[in-house]
Write a structure and sequence with these properties.
The protein is an alpha+beta fold. It has three helices and six strands; from the N terminus they run H-E-E-E-H-E-H-E-E. The chain has one domain. It is globular.
Length: about 190
């Protein structure tokens, strides 16, 4: 009996060590997969490399929004919570570092849909975001803190609705038509899962 209790205790201790040793992927961007963290450029780095203080992705996205302790993806959060987190991350974060076209097939698609807009670059529609149901490609800019333009990426913003759908209910005839505006898009866009 004592041997079986000791064996069970040893097994539990081994499982506890294995659970601690297994890296957890900081998934606020929603781009962690079972194989690792998917960088916006398509590279995959290990879970342990996500938020480790070193830019392992060539685009630096493995260090984006690491200051948040709650690792749930932004697109799973209530609009108010998501916007508050993004606002906090984007304060004084205006030094353009890189930009990518993100399509519906990208791991980053759901993040792109809920990203705040760059009101200076999306001025044709008063900074309105892309309509989630009428766009299939969004140009997203990634930014560092202004003045120094160094350090980790701190914000990602929609810059342009690149490819708009023209089938109903989308009124698009060009890229300006797939922004949220008028009666076609009232309130925050629900994010498809």
């Amino acid at each position: 009996m004592a041997k079986s209790i000791a064996a069970a205790a040893a097994l539990l201790a081994l499982l506890a060590v294995a659970a601690v040793a297994r890296p957890v992927c900081h998934n606020i961007t929603g781009t962690c997969t079972e194989h690792g963290f998917v960088c916006v450029g398509g590279e995959v780095v290990t879970h342990a490399q996500r938020c480790d203080g070193v830019e392992d992705c060539s685009d630096g996205t493995d260090e984006l929004m690491c200051e948040h302790e709650d690792h749930r993806p932004l697109f799973e959060r209530a609009t108010e919570e998501r916007e508050a987190m993004q606002q906090a991350s984007c304060v004084n974060c205006n030094c353009a570092a890189t930009a990518y076209s993100i399509t519906t097939t990208s791991q980053w698609w759901r993040y792109a849909l809920v990203a705040p807009t760059d009101v200076h670059l999306m001025s044709t529609r008063n900074g309105q975001p892309c309509r989630f149901d009428c766009v299939s490609k969004i140009y997203v800019g990634f930014y560092r803190k202004n003045r120094i333009c160094r350090g980790w990426l701190c914000c990602a913003r929609q810059r342009k609705c690149e490819t708009c759908l023209t089938a109903s209910p989308c009124p698009a005839t060009n890229s300006d038509d797939c922004h949220c505006w008028g009666t076609g898009c009232s309130g925050p866009a629900p994010v498809p899962v």
